[in-house]
Amino acid sequence: MEHWLPLVAMAPLAAAALAPALGRGRPALAWGLGVIAAAWSLLAAVLLTRRLVLEGPFSYAMGGWPAPYGIELRFDALSAATVFVALIYLLVLVYSRRYAEAAIPAHRRSWYYSLLMVNLGGLVGFVCAGDLFNLFVFMELASVSSYALVAAGGGRVAALAALKYLLAGAVSSVLILFSIGVLHALTGSLNIADVAARLAATGAGAPAALALGGLTAGFMVKAALFPLHLWLPDAHASAPSPVSAILSGLVVNIGIIGWLRILPIFSGLETMALGMVYEALAWLGAVAIIAGALAALFQQDIKLMLAYSTVSNIGYIVLGLGLAHPVAATGATVHVLNHALIKSTLFLAAGALIHQTGYRTLHDLRGAGRVMPWTCLALSIGVLAVVGLPPTAGFLGKWYIALGALEAGRPVFAVALLAGALLIFFYYVRILNAFYFRAPAQERMLSVREAPLSMLLPVLLLAALCVLGGLFGRWPIDLLAPLVRQLPGGG
Amino acid sequence: MALAIAAAAVPMLAGVMALPRPGDPAAPVHARVAAHVVAHGAEETGAENLVTAVLLAYRGYDTFGEVTVMFAALAAVMTVLAPRPRERSPEPADGVAISPVVVFVIRLLAPFIAAFAVLVVLRGNVSPGGGFQGGVMLGALLVLLSVVTGRGNERPLLEPRLASWLQAAGPLTFTLVALLGFATAGAVLALPADPAWARGAMLLALELGIGVGTAAIILGLFLQMRGW
Amino acid sequence: MPSGLQNLDYAAFVVLFCIGLYMVLARSNLVKKLLGLNIMETAVFAFIVTSGMVDDGTAPILGNGVAGPFASPLPHALILTGIVVAVSITALALALIVEIHRQCGTIEADELKGAE
């Protein structure tokens, strides 16, 4: 069974290599290949998670070479996120078919699907990595494909946004590689568990603190934590909508999941250095919540609004992690998964609106609720989820973070959380108002039809998951709790 | 801005100064994985070039990721820059016509360069070299020939249909060898210990796959960017 | 842990890294930013390779009659992968710059800010 672990990532990557060769002149074939690969990954991820629940976390020595000489793949509670990744990717691919036919020229389409497959393989491989350099390589796989996907739809804004994203991402990757080099020079090994053990044994000093700082800074740029978020709004807003869904829902979590993966290495570090990092993260997270929500309030373009909302939600997650309290950290980790569901719903629904109407601003989209009822229903559910109203998926994570803040004796952070929620509530009232209660401002809105089924079904399914995720929210929490307890510094 | 970066440099310098001295044989860097590889690498993997042993055997999964990154770069450039078939502009006039002396010399040297590149790829197990190095040389040679013979996008050196398959050679070879390794040795991307020739053959296949893929990708990148 | 002038190599690479970072952040021309990125990457590769060196050591390639301490092969494999990744990113960045130049007519970040 465990032999499936490397294949979860290798299958999409092999499909990516095959897609352009097989799909010459027939992009639909490349699309079909992508759907098969994503479905296969989803199946494998579900089976692996089932084994995780029944028998506990397990590892896989790649090539039979025992760790630390070889590469170790690890499947623990955090790796179960693979299920979310594969599921969202499958739905995005199904959605993408119609969208790509409209938005991406035919001769580029096979390469576009190839890039999507590379991205999927990179994300899945990243989440299951137990080795520092393997983590880096798959992070780069996901990142390079992301940079290109932003520019896939063409246009000057997208090209500029893609380059800005590339520079920010590449600089942070180099910083992460530097830190990995420092850790290697300190311990002679690249396996995460091995490095952690050796650092704890020999005692860490200035170089380990440097490595922690470098890794934190690098991963937080990738997670778009304020004030390092400047690359995100344009990139996520000008990308094609299915790509925006993946970027905001999945790729941005590379920073968070990566940071969680390397954190156990530094459990031996003296508490002062670790404590400073946590403090900084908590404050920056709180600022990000408010700044992101405020910025979203002033946007007219619906995708820019959603992009700033991502910045705000990352703030929630980082705040939860920075509080260094088990309840808050559990809430933060769960919110990573829930936010993936919610943001994909929102971006896909918004994409369907833009695809059908051609308009992107709230003003032009007035009255959409009447002509595209199902899409707007999904969007509204997503809106409610992002605000965090029970019983949607967005509620549980934020509730736990707030609880953790109060239990840790830091009520100011709970206030920040509440303020953020209120701000989001306001601007989403704007959206609902525009869709349902205002007369259309553009003539074309009157003759718009509902989105095609291949686009509508994934959106509705994701919206349903937003609600189900809230109703069954205890299950991921119980799964993640033991992992969270092992985080250093009181997590 | 410069001050901010200088301020960031200080902790970096402080941390780096406290590392073990580079070159110290007793440093931790040589103690764990490196010691094992140096001591047992040649017998366990059949490659005397220990870097190749690490690259293709111990950390073969990373190399798989690496060839896929290169392929992704090609896919990326194709997606960002793909010219519309109808809009392909006529070949822009080169600033200086290529002298026939240059053309002659390059055509004369091409077979030798190609032979050297292939040699580097094939001897990757026992001498410095390997798939990437040889592949880059071959790719650079193909680019040079494209420029010199004037066969750009109109009649490319590699026919497009074939080129797609050759470019995918890297990741595909790795996948095939990985599955083969699973069938023969019980773990994905493993090397069978028993028939030594099988092990050598799998390493060779990997090297060739990497070399061919790299060369095709480099040519593909050049042709794509030149199209503008 | 020994410190002082023994790790001058490392210090030099850190300085190089910061020079590259300065170029990425402070220079307006997009190609110069890309060059700064490449300088940063080179600095990190040099750092990693240097960390694997041994006094009086040879390259980690066994052969007839080759003896003595071997440099660690692990950093060599790491930076090989790193170089390929860096080349891939550079290729994509150049393609984007070409596209930006085609669409906007300029590759100076200052002028591009107005064009957005």
Characterize the structure shown:
The complex is a heterotrimer of chains A (491), B (228) and C (116). Chain A is mostly helical and 491 residues long. Chain A has a domain at 270-491. Chain A has helices at residues 4-22, 27-55, 81-103, 106-127, 132-150, 156-187, 192-202, 206-222, 232-238, 241-251, 253-262, 271-297, 302-322, 326-357, 368-371, 373-387, 393-407, 411-437, 453-471, 474-485; strands at 58-61, 72-75. In chain A, α3 runs antiparallel to α19. The model of chain A has no long low-confidence stretch (mean pLDDT 86). Chain B is mainly alpha-helical and 228 residues long. Chain B has a domain at 60-84 and 99-228. Helices cover 69% and strands 0% of the residues of chain B. Chain B contains 9 helices and no strands. The two termini of chain B are 36 Å apart. Chain C has a single domain, classed as Helix Hairpins, CATH 1.10.287.3510. Helix content of chain C is 69%, strand content 0%. Chain C is elongated, with a radius of gyration of 19 Å. Chains in contact: A-B, A-C, B-C.
Walk me through the topology.
The complex is a heterotrimer of chains A (491), B (228) and C (116).
Chain A: H1 4-22, H2 27-55, E1 58-61, E2 72-75, H3 81-103, H4 106-127, H5 132-150, H6 156-187, H7 192-202, H8 206-222, H9 232-238, H10 241-251, H11 253-262, H12 271-297, H13 302-322, H14 326-357, H15 368-371, H16 373-387, H17 393-407, H18 411-437, H19 453-471, H20 474-485
Antiparallel strand pairs in A: 1-2
Chain B: H1 2-17, H2 33-45, H3 50-58, H4 60-81, H5 100-122, H6 131-149, H7 160-167, H8 169-185, H9 196-226
Chain C: H1 8-26, H2 30-51, H3 73-104, H4 109-115
Task: Summarize the model shown.
By secondary structure, chain A is mainly alpha-helical. In chain A, 76% of the residues lie in helices and 2% in strands.
